[in-house]
Amino acid sequence: MNSQKHKLVRFVYGKEHIPISYGYKIAMVSSNSLKFLGVSVDYRLDWGDHVDQLANDMARYVYARRTLSELVNVSTAFTAYNAYIDSRLRCGIVIWGNSSDILRLLLLQKRYICGILKLSKTQSCRAHFVGRSVLTVVSLYVYEAVMFILNNRDLFVETKREHEHNTRAENDMRLPRFKHTYLQNNSVYALLKIYNHIPQEARGWPQHMRRRLNTYLRKTPYYTLQEYFEDNICLS
């Protein structure tokens, strides 16, 4: 094992550095985070480091937009957005999308759109997210979360598989039980909650779910997950 190419991360709720040694040589020193397949994984799994990196990258694109908007038309500027920002946000969002810092990314999305369309800081961007068919980072997270559950149903347990009774929640995915409420902030729990909010009737035609949910989210730009959970979704 090459100590220069490995990191040791101890997943705890406190900071504690533990050197791992063999003989008289220190092989590795524990770190608070590491990068794995493009996603920064921190020791508390709150995804703060990854959001920081994304925010820094997006800030550079927002700055570059100033020059871009002077050289190309609006349509081309949004094509650049899809290539450089939307693609980065989609990468691994089912894992880090429940981060409490996600609002920072939404604000950068709004700055980019306001800059392209030359809107004032006081103008709302909601209508422009819809008009330009751009998913907010929250809507993007909802979409990718539902698609992940649909494509990996065998990894989860449906409520109807636990009993034979007909209930309103029989097609829901069973939520894991935790002794401590803070453990409900984990990625899997968030994915299941998002999926369970999709209307029951919509789950009967998963082959159409992708298109209908995508269309609905492009017309309904969510700024927070709370907005999503309070919305009466209709995909028919």
Task: Note down, in words, how this protein is organized.
This protein is 47% helix and 7% strand. A hairpin with a 2-residue loop joins β1 and β2. The chain has helices spanning 48-71, 74-90, 93-96, 102-117, 126-131, 137-151, 187-196, 206-219, 225-230; strands spanning 19-22, 25-29, 33-36, 39-42. α1 (48-71) packs parallel to α4 (102-117), α6 (137-151) packs across α7 (187-196) and α6 packs antiparallel against α8 (206-219). The mean pLDDT is 79. It folds into three domains: 3-31, no CATH class; 45-134, no CATH class; 142-230, no CATH class. The chain is flat, with a radius of gyration of 21 Å. With 236 residues, the protein is mostly helical. The chain crosses the membrane at residues 129-150.
- The coarse overall form would be flat
Number of strands: 4
Strand content: 5-15%
Average predicted local confidence, pLDDT: 79
Keywords: Membrane, Transmembrane, Transmembrane helix
Task: Offer a few descriptive terms.
mainly alpha, two-stranded antiparallel sheet, 236 residues, two-stranded antiparallel ribbon
Task: Kindly summarize this structure in a few lines.
The protein is mostly helical and 236 residues long. Helix content is 47%, strand content 7%. β1 and β2 (25-29) form a beta hairpin.
